[in-house]
Amino acid sequence: MALRSCLIPFLQQLGDDVSYWGFFVEYAPKMASGAMTTAMVMGCSALLAAVISLIFGLMRLSQNWGVQAAATVYIEFFRGTSLLVQLYWIYYVLPLMGLTLSPFMSGVLALGLNFGAYGAEIVRGGVQSVPRGQWEAALALNMSPAQRMRRIIVPQTFTLILPPMANLTVELLKATALVALITVVDLMFVAKQINATTWLSAQVFGTALIIYYIMARFALIPFLRWLEVLAARKVGKA
Amino acid sequence: MEWRWDFTFEILPRMLWATGNTLLAAGIGYLIALVVGLILMLGQRTPYRIVNFIVREVVEFIRSTPLLVQLFFVFFVAPQFGIKLTAWTSAMLTIGLHFGTYLSEVYRGALEGVPKAQWEACRALNFSTAYTYRRVVLPQAFPIALPGMGNYLVGIFKDTPLLATIGVAELMHTANALGAETYRYLEPYTMVGFIFLIISLPAAMGLRRLEAAVAKAQGKVKH
Amino acid sequence: MDTRHPQSLPDGSPLVRFADVTKSYGDLTVLDKLNLDIAQNEMVSIIGPSGSGKTTVLRVLMTLETINDGVIYVDGEPLTHMPSGAGLEVASESYLRQRRSKIGMVFQQFNLFPHMTALQNCIEAPMQVLGLSRDEAEERALDLLQMVGMDSKKDQHPTRLSGGQQQRVAIARALAMRPQVMLLDEVTSALDPEVIGEVLNVIRSLNSEHNLTMIMVTHQMGFAREISDRVCFFYEGKIAEQGSPEKLFEDPQNERTKQFLHAVLDAN
Ligand SMILES: Nc1ncnc2c1ncn2[C@@H]1O[C@H](COP(=O)(O)OP(=O)(O)O)[C@@H](O)[C@H]1O
Ligand SMILES: [Mg+2]
């Protein structure tokens, strides 16, 4: 009985092609523009996160005690608290201290800082897994510590860190949905908006999920794989 | 804006109570995810290639879409079809499903981490499949899976603030409510961050210990 | 500050001098008050049982490891230390960078840079460290690659090369820095038997045609005997016996040397 009472409206909804098509035609442009914003948030925060990952990942390996401690505190802090908490803090609390950022900026900053902390650990792991012999060969050629790092070690870490970085980037795309909660008009925000006026929840959130899926599976992941192949070719492994 | 300690202590009981809810949500969600993960892993190892394929695609779909959108989907769509789900039920279902896909990967990786030769040795000794799993494969796979399993427990914990968006009265929800009531956001939000930190830091440390212990037990030396 | 050792050696001194060099890891003393002089253009082979400190001698000379006591001099000037007041103090990184350029090293595991081609491996340090232009560096590198017989593979990445080929590129890479002393640490130990010969041939020509000063750790007794001016037998961080190859291989005096040569030659 319970099953039938669920199933019938479900089938009615599904069978009603016209209603979904009508929904699609009406709301597709709005959702597409939301998706564009999602892509923007994603691109900007990925760039920020990449820079932070590199800087803090290398700081974490510094011989200097203070530099290393600063990086550790940063990384543990941003990994230890929750992304949403950081987002709210930046958006709602920072203005109380006199620093007001736009919703977009707040979102990019929170995502960049948070994912930068995770990325820094990946960079650290990558650098540490470059064989010792590479450092020694560079030293035997009398390269300075900076030259060793920049010319020998960092280029070699790219192939090592790209696969875990790719996973992290997909997580970043998913995490961008949170910026809707601080009024950035991204895909999630648009979906919520449409849902609030139409109550066509299955259609709107279902479509949003599919768009996120397409962005991840058919745009982001192929792009990241391409980067991996490119990096592999650079080190002569392809 | 100044930090007010009297206000901090005034809201502390409510925050602690909410912390209990957060931990409860993470715990229940994790238990569901452990089971869902098992089902999704087994679903990819059936004798039917079509079933394996479908389950694999479903896992991929869930893994590459945002938890937040899934949460709204479950919470709002169910009533559309006449199913009444409370915020808590929706939340637990979504978390269980979302992280179940990750755990299925952890299980799969762990099973694949057991050398093929172990299976072959069991075949040579004429052990049954069930016996092989129970006495040979699972005891070796479990330590491999442990760190991943621990990681996702912490992962779920850190994602619980999202549940506030559909009205689960966990920490973030309580902080929002306090902010709305008192117009003070500094203390509630900062306290949420602090509480997360003091729970997840020791947890992460414990995890690292666990990982090291597992690596050591497997005879791998960490450099 | 250390005042037991001179701030520089008089003219006519050996190219490399180990003066009472001690190296230890915790309680384990790996080099024990080692004294060793190496003359200009000399080819010295180091042999000895595993763990006797052979690699460590090369590594402290390359400044890959710091020593605990004593001083190493290269070309009359201290390497591990720098003048300070009346004595010597431990060298700073910038001082090391000045002095280290006189030494080159080839490793057992080649340690070529995997993200660079053979040619790029050979021009990287000359351009970055010596400040050569790309043209100058390439000219120098191509000459050397030709000498080691690797010019036809100059655009290959190391993963595409056999062990013997990689080791020959590694030799060219070290030579491109024009070191005065070359250190070779079991350079054929990681190679398949059939390619050992090609690497030994390169070392032969370095010795005969280029008159380079070389210190070579090796397990190839025949080769050591053929090519060396002097052979040092290491035992427990000390030179137990040294002398001309003929003397050491045919008429060893030390009991340890006899045992070692017996064991090695029997195995062959
Ligand atoms: N980084 C290190 N830490 C501790 N002990 C070391 C280290 N490197 C070498 N040793 C020890 O020093 C001794 C000499 O090593 P090595 O010079 O490599 O010997 P050889 O090359 O003659 O085989 C060995 O007992 C070795 O275990
Ligand atoms: Mg050795």
Automatic annotation (TrEMBL), chain B:
GO terms for cellular component: ATP-binding cassette (ABC) transporter complex. Residues 19-207 form the ABC transmembrane type-1 domain. Pfam families: BPD_transp_1. The chain crosses the membrane at residues 23-43, 64-83, 189-207. Keywords: Amino-acid transport, Cell membrane, Membrane, Transmembrane, Transmembrane helix, Transport. PROSITE patterns: ABC_TM1 (PS50928). GO terms for molecular function: transmembrane transporter activity. It is a multi-pass membrane protein. GO terms for biological process: amino acid transport. It is found in: Cell inner membrane; Cell membrane. Coiled coil: none annotated. Belongs to the binding-protein-dependent transport system permease family. HisMQ subfamily. This is Ectoine/hydroxyectoine ABC transporter permease subunit EhuD. It comes from Actibacterium pelagium.
